[in-house]
Amino acid sequence: TRTEDRIVKRAKYAAEGLAWYWIVDLDAVTVEVLRNDGGVMVDVQTIRAGELAETAGPFPVPMDPATLST
Among 3, 32, 33, 69, which residue is least crowded by beta carbons within 10 Å? Predict the structure, then answer.
């Protein structure tokens, strides 16, 4: 669920030391890129449908979330 992805997993992954976390939301048609900054996941980038952008990390992946499907 969105709550699990944005609150529970975000905190758990940060505490466990995961360096990067992407949240792919097919309903909102977005990709959120988060980076671990001292045990806290911080928002780095949000890519929206219709935008062709490279992900900020951990490596560049060109994408437009509108091209993602279930």
Answer: 69
